[in-house]
Amino acid sequence: MRVLVYGSGQLAQMMYLAAAPLGVIVSAVDVSNETVVHPVSKEPTGVSLQNAIEDANAITVEFEHVPEHLLLDADKSGKLFPNVASILAGADRVREKALLSKHEIPNCPYLIITDVTDLDNVIASLGERVIFKASRDGYDGYGQWRMQSADQLEKLKSEFAKLDLVKVPLIAERMMQFDREISLVGARDSEGNVSCFSLAENLHFEGQLHVSVAPITDLSDSLQSQANEIFEKLATAMDYVGVLAVELFQCGEELLVNEIAPRVHNSGHWTQQGCDTSQFEQHIRAVLGLPLGAVDVRGVSAMVNIIGCTAFSRDLIGIAGAHLHWYGKEVRTKRKMGHINVVADSHSHLGNKLAQLLAFLPVEHFPELEAEANRLKNYTK
């Protein structure tokens, strides 16, 4: 069986590695030049895109910003999972907000900004603390602006006046007072079967994910059930097939949807060692119509992103339960170079292992790790 993945980055690479034991061959498409490449070496395979589409049993994506004409061509084959509408909803915050509103799924109060004059209503509608997000092509904190007080509005108006807000509108969202950021990664198959992983707790720095811990601390059955219900409602509404990530704000016992990602997701990398079935294998299973795998956790896991650096000691894999995943990229500021998964039998033991990990890493590139290690070490529930 063959799967063709649009996008040729680390997520396609990890799908390839997860699919190989199943006897599934994964190829990738470099969407910048529409060339079919090997997902690990990135070398062209010599197979035309049209032939790769014809040979594939299923076609999928590793990121939502695939040029729309490529998605439409793939969709004609009847093999594209998830469907085009789902992918476009993840790529465009205006579509995403419309989806959430239509299905009455709780999310942050917002306005759509298509003209600078729309900003005159922002404070009255949303308050003084507002986050502005580009509706397309924003990720890892890029394409975002924060307003902490009303006196910043005029400066933002001047900045936004330089943008084409008709072509790429802004979403203005109330900056919520939330307890923490969590996410749910799950899968739905073509028959409507749904399977969700445990909730993950996510720590960000400058808009970029640095550490995920799963299961979350203070996880209740009601919180997991609420997240699962949101996931199933969304996935069913979109007639979704594959792995879907839902990023959430926890406000007391209420969950608000922040964003969705129609693909395997950074906050689900912990499943590679922390679950019976990884998110990557689960996605391959779903898009090919194979049975979904079990998602039971193996203890408690953390995923630590390696961002913008190569200067660390690979001796870290000597820590029991530590696993290195390297992407083979050239180093660049804020670029995800790889990640480390760490598995332990409790949150406190996980904290001890994360503290050990610090000895092998340049601390300046891991600004959230020490505090998180200390928090978990002292967690006794």
UniProtKB/TrEMBL annotation:
<feature type="binding site">
    <location>
        <position position="204"/>
    </location>
    <ligand>
        <name>ATP</name>
    </ligand>
</feature>
<dbReference type="GO" id="GO:0034028">
    <property type="term" value="F:5-(carboxyamino)imidazole ribonucleotide synthase activity"/>
</dbReference>
<dbReference type="InterPro" id="IPR011761">
    <property type="entry name" value="ATP-grasp"/>
</dbReference>
<dbReference type="Pfam" id="PF17769">
    <property type="entry name" value="PurK_C"/>
</dbReference>
<keyword id="KW-0436">Ligase</keyword>
<dbReference type="GO" id="GO:0005829">
    <property type="term" value="C:cytosol"/>
</dbReference>
<feature type="binding site">
    <location>
        <position position="93"/>
    </location>
    <ligand>
        <name>ATP</name>
    </ligand>
</feature>
<keyword id="KW-0547">Nucleotide-binding</keyword>
<protein>
    <recommendedName>
        <fullName>N5-carboxyaminoimidazole ribonucleotide synthase</fullName>
        <ecNumber>6.3.4.18</ecNumber>
    </recommendedName>
</protein>
<dbReference type="Pfam" id="PF22660">
    <property type="entry name" value="RS_preATP-grasp-like"/>
</dbReference>
<comment type="function">
    <text>Catalyzes the ATP-dependent conversion of 5-aminoimidazole ribonucleotide (AIR) and HCO(3)- to N5-carboxyaminoimidazole ribonucleotide (N5-CAIR).</text>
</comment>
<dbReference type="GO" id="GO:0046872">
    <property type="term" value="F:metal ion binding"/>
</dbReference>
<comment type="similarity">
    <text>Belongs to the PurK/PurT family.</text>
</comment>
<feature type="binding site">
    <location>
        <begin position="138"/>
        <end position="144"/>
    </location>
    <ligand>
        <name>ATP</name>
    </ligand>
</feature>
<dbReference type="InterPro" id="IPR040686">
    <property type="entry name" value="PurK_C"/>
</dbReference>
<comment type="pathway">
    <text>Purine metabolism; IMP biosynthesis via de novo pathway; 5-amino-1-(5-phospho-D-ribosyl)imidazole-4-carboxylate from 5-amino-1-(5-phospho-D-ribosyl)imidazole (N5-CAIR route): step 1/2.</text>
</comment>
<dbReference type="InterPro" id="IPR013815">
    <property type="entry name" value="ATP_grasp_subdomain_1"/>
</dbReference>
<dbReference type="GO" id="GO:0006189">
    <property type="term" value="P:'de novo' IMP biosynthetic process"/>
</dbReference>
<dbReference type="Pfam" id="PF02222">
    <property type="entry name" value="ATP-grasp"/>
</dbReference>
<dbReference type="InterPro" id="IPR003135">
    <property type="entry name" value="ATP-grasp_carboxylate-amine"/>
</dbReference>
<comment type="function">
    <text>Catalyzes the ATP-dependent conversion of 5-aminoimidazole ribonucleotide (AIR) and HCO(3)(-) to N5-carboxyaminoimidazole ribonucleotide (N5-CAIR).</text>
</comment>
<feature type="binding site">
    <location>
        <begin position="258"/>
        <end position="259"/>
    </location>
    <ligand>
        <name>ATP</name>
    </ligand>
</feature>
<dbReference type="GO" id="GO:0004638">
    <property type="term" value="F:phosphoribosylaminoimidazole carboxylase activity"/>
</dbReference>
<dbReference type="InterPro" id="IPR016185">
    <property type="entry name" value="PreATP-grasp_dom_sf"/>
</dbReference>
<keyword id="KW-0658">Purine biosynthesis</keyword>
<keyword id="KW-0067">ATP-binding</keyword>
<comment type="subunit">
    <text>Homodimer.</text>
</comment>
<dbReference type="InterPro" id="IPR054350">
    <property type="entry name" value="PurT/PurK_preATP-grasp"/>
</dbReference>
<feature type="binding site">
    <location>
        <position position="133"/>
    </location>
    <ligand>
        <name>ATP</name>
    </ligand>
</feature>
<dbReference type="InterPro" id="IPR011054">
    <property type="entry name" value="Rudment_hybrid_motif"/>
</dbReference>
<feature type="binding site">
    <location>
        <position position="181"/>
    </location>
    <ligand>
        <name>ATP</name>
    </ligand>
</feature>
<dbReference type="InterPro" id="IPR005875">
    <property type="entry name" value="PurK"/>
</dbReference>
<dbReference type="GO" id="GO:0005524">
    <property type="term" value="F:ATP binding"/>
</dbReference>
<feature type="domain" description="ATP-grasp">
    <location>
        <begin position="97"/>
        <end position="288"/>
    </location>
</feature>
